[in-house]
């Protein structure tokens, strides 16, 4: 049995015990090109077409993209996995760690909806523990779940979608829970808080999700990233479809990651526009409260979310009505300065 011990964790972490038996025993797909490492060969192995520019299968392990990320994040490539969006990685985490119809996962509500959808697709029970009034985790309510032998994965979204705030006390959960803790940092680039990527060596049960869909502006390219121990990353490599990230998307990601100045300019503009929007909207009579945000969106409590939402739709402005999750709340993504001005004008015209 393989034992992976965290340097400063209070428990032993047994990765193999957490992995589904069929995944542990899985012989992954292997192509002839996995075995051939040279260059300039005549490739007659993969039933490709010899003509064209996109005729060859892409690098299944996205080595160039990982090298770029590795430099940027000071993280060895062996600790990086690339998914077809982080949604694909969420789905694969269930497939690796949770036995359908038997195991459980846990998350906190309100949060990102795909943890629940992917759980349902995989026939996994998802326990949802409500966040408190400040949208933080109530640790006292959590302890009872830590001894559940069927609880394999905890999802924590920080900054949280749809509330926008960073979640505190994550390290306590990493120390006390013997299963996998997935910290979804889709919005971390907009936050002033540090990423958990620095903690990978400390916590062998930690998986961090990031994405190029938000601050990097590449939602169309579907590039999600997981950072974790090399042992955990090798499990994701085992279960992924062989060519899960297209060549075009790998190239788009490398190009975006090579232009740090543009990334920072746009990210800073979005953050300053968020502050402008929050300040302006707070003065409107239709807006009761705006929750603090560390993301590129914020949650606004209004007098009548359904009415306001439809008023904006009639003006061709689409926001996210979250009233079923947080009463009378609308989630607003920060747009360009021109888009934000149109939103402000439309809100000024709204009579509750
Ligand atoms: N996690 C969170 C918290 C999100 O809000 C989203 C997208 N809305 C995702 C993951 C999915 O990101 P991707 O585009 O990388 O699949």
How are the SSEs placed, and which strands pair?
Elements: E1 4-5, E2 12-13, H1 15-18, H2 21-24, H3 32-35, H4 63-73, E3 80-84, H5 86-97, E4 104-109, H6 114-121, E5 125-130, H7 139-142, E6 151-157, H8 170-176, E7 180-184, E8 206-211, E9 223-227, H9 230-239, H10 247-257, H11 260-282, E10 287-290, E11 297-302, H12 305-314, E12 320-321, E13 329-333, H13 337-348
Parallel strand pairs: 4-5, 4-6, 6-7, 7-8
Antiparallel strand pairs: 1-2, 3-9, 8-9, 10-11, 11-13, 12-13
Helix pairs in contact: 4-10, 5-6, 11-13
4'-deoxy-4'-aminopyridoxal-5'-phosphate (PMP) binds at residues 85-87, 112, 157, 161, 184, 186, 211, 213, 219, 224.
The gist of it:
The chain is α/β, with parallel strands linked by helices and 352 residues long. It has helices at residues 15-18, 21-24, 32-35, 63-73, 86-97, 114-121, 139-142, 170-176, 230-239, 247-257, 260-282, 305-314, 337-348, and strands at 4-5, 12-13, 80-84, 104-109, 125-130, 151-157, 180-184, 206-211, 223-227, 287-290, 297-302, 320-321, 329-333. It is globular, with a radius of gyration of 22 Å.
